[in-house]
Specification:
alpha/beta, TIM Barrel, eight-stranded parallel beta barrel, two-stranded antiparallel sheet, 11 helices, 39% helix
Length: 314
């Protein structure tokens, strides 16, 4: 496993991180989830990404139950705040009240004294950015979080947070967590340059587009898979994208790697990227994906991939 810095900070994370979205504490039972988390750590993964909304707090509990058996300082643990956690009108968003109450609940569920990264899980148009930035900075001062970041924020929203933090000497966001992969590249135009400009790391989620970039849907949509059961993947399960994945699969085969490894290595081609966060429901699946760390794609391969994807961002 290779490691990269989170932007200009001194924090280093494994190039491939483990995420608990939609699975741990939910569709994947706690016993199997624990086995996968332990396997990831044993293989060199030091960054585990969770959120309070994942399985309504259960993912935090599952991860917390596992990491108690490890040296806490060896791990980078993140969680997030924004989405409604109950029907209460204040139990949502990025108000100071919700942030201050949510961090304590997350820490209790995880069973830790602090988070290495605490993300604002979306931008909150109903709360002044300064209020959110001040609350996050106060959590750093209190020792409850080490760094704070944003997730799925636009470039101008990141700039507002940085500006407010600079204006009154607060802690700047250290990292952005966007949706990014071969088929979803919107961050390249403005969000990625903004992160580079302000020294922020980028920890991307859904690097395999919920399995589409593993090739599992290349010959149809198997029943019981996310492609069959979830609406939000439907927009990517197009004939055009499936054709691209089939062609990319041939590139991977020529390199002696899997389609998933190619997709992850393609993301990690960029030094601006700190890590790719993968999900896993099986240990074998996890270990195969972790092998993407350290794979360096030749320029000729990147150019071939770019032609297949239909872009010009080599």
């Amino acid at each position: 496993m290779e490691y990269r810095r989170i932007g200009k900070s001194g924090l280093k994370v494994s190039e491939i991180a483990l995420g608990a979205w939609l699975t741990y504490g939910g569709s994947v039972g706690s016993g199997r989830a624990a086995q996968i988390i332990k396997a990831a750590i044993d293989e060199g993964v030091n960054f585990i990404d969770i959120a309070d909304i994942y399985s309504n707090g259960e993912a935090e509990k599952v991860v917390g139950a596992v990491i108690k058996d490890y040296k806490r300082s060896d791990l980078v643990i993140s969680s997030k705040v924004f989405w409604p956690m109950s029907s209460d009108v204040n139990d949502r968003g990025l108000s100071r009240k919700h942030i201050m109450e949510s961090i304590d609940k997350s820490l209790k569920r995880i069973g830790t004294d602090y988070l290495d990264i605490y993300y604002c899980h979306r931008f909150d148009p109903e709360t002044p950015v300064e209020e959110t930035v001040r609350a996050m900075s106060d959590l750093v001062q209190q020792g409850k979080i080490v760094y704070w970041g944003t997730s799925v924020w636009e470039a101008d929203e990141i700039e507002r947070a940085v500006s407010d933090a600079q204006n009154w000497n607060g802690y700047l966001p250290a990292v952005e967590q966007p949706h990014y992969n071969m088929l979803h590249r919107y961050i390249e135009d403005s969000i990625m340059p903004a992160c580079v400009r302000y020294g922020m790391g980028i920890t991307v989620w859904s690097p395999l587009e919920q399995g589409l970039l593993t090739g599992k849907y290349s010959d149809g949509i198997p029943p019981g898979t996310r492609g069959a059961d979830t609406v939000w993947l439907a927009e990517y399960l197009t004939n055009e994208n499936i054709a691209k994945v089939k062609t990319l699969g041939k590139v991977a085969q020529s390199l002696g790697i899997t389609m998933a490894q190619l997709a992850l290595a393609w993301i990690l081609r960029l030094p601006e990227i700190s890590c790719a966060i993968v999900g896993a429901t099986k240990i074998d699946q996890l270990k195969e994906n972790l092998k993407a760390s350290g794979i360096k794609l030749e320029q000729s391969t990147l150019e071939e991939i770019e032609k297949i994807l239909g872009g010009d961002n080599v």
